[in-house]
Design goal:
This protein has helices at residues 16-29, 44-55, 62-86, 97-107, 112-122, 138-148, 160-176, 190-207; strands at 4-10, 34-38, 90-94, 130-135, 181-185. It is of the alpha/beta class and 208 residues long. Strands 2-3-1-4-5 form a five-stranded parallel sheet, with helices on both faces. It starts with a strand and ends with a helix. Bound molecules: thymidine-5'-diphosphate.
Amino acid sequence: MTGLFITFEGGDGSGKSTQAELLTSWLTDAGHTVVRTREPGGTDLGDELREIVLHRRGDIAPRAEALIYAADRAHHIATKVRPAIDRGEVVIQDRYFDSSVAYQGVGRGLGADDVRRISLWAVEDLLPDLTILLDLDESVGRGRLDEARTRYDRLEAEEQTFHATVRSAYLELAAAEPARFLVLDASGDVASLAAAIRARVEALLARR
Ligand code: TYD
């Protein structure tokens, strides 16, 4: 049986990691082999690229930034994610190419179509079976980050209008591919969100 590939998307502070963690535990308890991973990062090379793209002090040109995320993604999918899916496992991933389309394509103004094309080339067209978009007002997300952070990474440090643009880009992506996306209001409580996610994943597993 072929595996399942589920990605979480949303702005900073939208609760992706919490929900990815809960879904991972639920699937593991149900007897599935789950690989929980993230971008940027997720591999040794990815951790190095993550450090550069999120924490480098000097400037990074927007196209270079997009290509670093794409390089991280190419290596991550080829060496970790695709092999797990081929083994029939479930991959739960924080962020994937929709992040690049929203942040670099729209946020940085590089063009959604170009950035999507580069990302899909990098991963030989691997699409998720399900993408969960945790939609949240950017100022609420920022408030949550402020409570949790002492320093911001290069993207988090962008101003509020950037994050508002990213949010609307995500909603447009979801509207364009309603079959792949589950959009949830991330201001809801953790347990109800988790239940909505489980219901959708259960349906996906039943169809497999
Ligand atoms: P993330 O790992 O979600 O941050 P944290 O673990 O600190 O909450 O993502 C780091 C940042 O990278 C986030 O601000 C979004 C950004 N990003 C992009 O701009 N493009 C991409 O393709 C990806 C994967 C992330």
